[in-house]
Amino acid sequence: MPVTGRDIARKLGLAASTVSQALNDKGSLNPETVALVQRTALEMGYVPARRSRKAPGIEGSRVLVILSNTARGSHRTNLSGLDVRAIHGVETAVKERGATPALVSESQLADDAARGVSGAVVIGGYLSDSTAAFLRSAAVPAVMIASPSSEPNISSVQVDVIEGMRRATAYLHDLGHRHVALLNGPSATLASDHKLTGYLRALFDRGIVPDPSLVLSLERDVTGSRAIVREALDGALAGVTAVVCAYEELAIAALQAGREVGLRVPDDLSIIAYHDEGLAEVAVPPLTTIALPIELMARLAVSQLVTLAIDPDLVGTQLLVKATLRIRGSTAPAQT
What we know:
Helix content is about 40%, strand content about 15%. By secondary structure, it is of the alpha/beta class.
């Protein structure tokens, strides 16, 4: 099997992009790094691939738009607001590049699905083992939107979840709220870990000792979570004046539960939701959110495919983008 730039990167403990720059005499690397990479490449028997004068890109090809399941073992029954926006964004960007998008679910993937395909974009936040194996066997570049992948051959465009949740929590503290709760998603998931980290970081920044009783792990379900939050507002969360929620559904649950125990939003309880998939705008009052720039992420994912078609050594690249704080009617200064 031919030696690749990624093989050299692994041997030296460098980023694949650094090795690629050194092998192609691009960028502004220091001479010692360039010499080390080129010497190691020679020792390992690396042979650079011949490149045509015109980079291949994705023009004239098909690009798979793979709609994944949302979690291990789950089966998608409908599309979220983010799914719809991501699909539209990817399909638009693919067509602008002169390629044809082909929307498929994970269950629809088969050997012939890779025929004439130059790449794949995965939407939905989870990649099954079978789909990962399909992408490996098809030998096409792939990019995931919104979530990282444990597969080293799959690139991603992610949101800085930690910074988003830190910013949401910090905003509530800036409004004067000193008792801020976190309604997090299910425990033992990477997304929930990142959201908890962002929440805690905002507290640490202000010298506030975290109170574990102010953190609840809930399912992404309005009805079931509402009952739990209502009970908590009369118990562990009594005295809380603001909550930051991992999902819109949890923010709606908090909104409804607060009303049921006599709290006015935002006068008595300020609420921020992570995600902005459509529920936030129609809630009463409309919810302040940390919104994902999904259209930008879709375009970046397609741009990554073009880059990978030109330089396969950059496979596995992970791009991180910032979320946006959208202030609406569910947040207000704390009552003094």
